[in-house]
Amino acid sequence: MKNEILIIVVILFVITSTVYSQSNMNLNGTNSINVSFGFKMNSTTSASTTLSEVNTETNILIDLNYQYWFDNQWSVDASVGTFGASANVNYSNISTVTIIPLLFGFSYYPEKLAIGDVGRIHFGLNTGIYIGSGTQTKTSLDNLFSIGSDVVNETVFGVEPNLGIDFFISSWLKIGPKISYHFISNFKELGNKGYSGGVFAINLGILL
Question: Distance between the two ends of the chain, CA-based, in angstroms?
Fold first, then answer.
């Protein structure tokens, strides 16, 4: 938790200490293919083992995003990713859950918050669906050799506000940190296991 607070404080410090200037950078008509790598801030990647079960949880986020600036300060975004994968194995049950967000939204790059001609602070809001996929396999207590398997797929609505900084280090490459929060509706079949949460990620983009 301390590391998460430190990350947020550093980014907010950069934003509030920036000398506001009018950037000469013109993003209008630019396309970008972005890849984000991050982790959920409300949990950690972990694994545990007991005499009766094995539990693993992976909270790494991988996201592929397409971005188009229809104005120097505004872009439209579409993304697909995966996060929140988990697994539980014990003598009578094996279950796995993976969350795939499909999101669409807009980002705002205010010129007055430009960091010279190199960096642009941005605010975004994405909405869409979160597809949850789970597999449960159970063995019968009466017959240990009788195995049944069920596949559960659920789709719920979600919202993702975000804040970040893009540093345009060349005419074709940008990189920067981004903080977002995934507000995800509760799954009925897969249960509510804290899938909502904040994400800190590093975003790498190829400009076209």
Answer: 38
CA distance 145 to 154: 29
- What's the rounded Cα separation, in Å, for the pair 208 and 202? 20
3-state SS, the chain, equals CHHHHHHHHHHHHHHHHCCCECCCCCCCCCEEEEEEEEEECCCCCEEEECCCEEEEEECEEEEEEEEEECCCCEEEEEEEEEEEEEEEEECCEEEEEEEEEEEEEEEECCHHHEECCCEEEEEEEEEEEEEEEEEEEEECCCCCCCEEEEEEEEEEEEEEEEEEEEEECCCCEEEEEEEEEEEECCCCCCCCCCCCEEEEEEEEEEEC
Question: One-letter amino acid identity for 18?
Answer: T
The set of residues, in sequence order, having a beta carbon less than 8 Å from that of 57 and lying 6+ positions away, is 43, 45, 46, 47, 85, 86, 87
Amino acid (one-letter) located at 184: I
Give the tokens for residue 126.
């994405």
Question: What's the whole-model pTM score?
Answer: 0.78
Q: What is the pLDDT of residues 89-105, one digit of tens each?
A: 444 454 677 889 999 99
d(CA 125, CA 108): 9
**37 vs 194: which has the higher pLDDT:** 37
